[in-house]
Amino acid sequence: MSTVTGPELAKYQRVVVDMDTCIGCGACISVCPYNALELNENGKARLIWDFCKDDFECIPVCPVNCIWKSSEAPAESKAKNEWFRITRQLTPEEQQIFEEWKKKYGITGNPVSA
Q1: pLDDT under 70 in the chain at which residues?
Q2: How many CB atoms are closer than 10 A to CB 84?
Q3: Distance CA 24, CA 36 (A)
Q4: Most-buried pick from 36, 41, 85, 87 (CB within 10 A)?
Q5: Largest Cα–Cα distance in the chain?
């Protein structure tokens, strides 16, 4: 299973995906060893937040450059909603880690609602 749990969630920077720029080619999905990217219902790449373990192989394979490390992503991409999702209900500790990640990297957009 690829899910990261508990305090381990705090270790990772993760990536930001701009789904407005994404062409849905799937290159990022094919190289991620943690299955931390998927195509959404519109055929655009979406991050699975609790699977991402900072491999970053997805970044250089993107032909339209719509994936960045969270620390390097444009603010307008970080502000968009639904470019990432969480696969399960987070524990209170994990929810705090999630909120700290958002604050640290300036993520203002919200995940896909479960």
Answers
A1: 1-2, 114
A2: 24
A3: 15
A4: 36
A5: 38
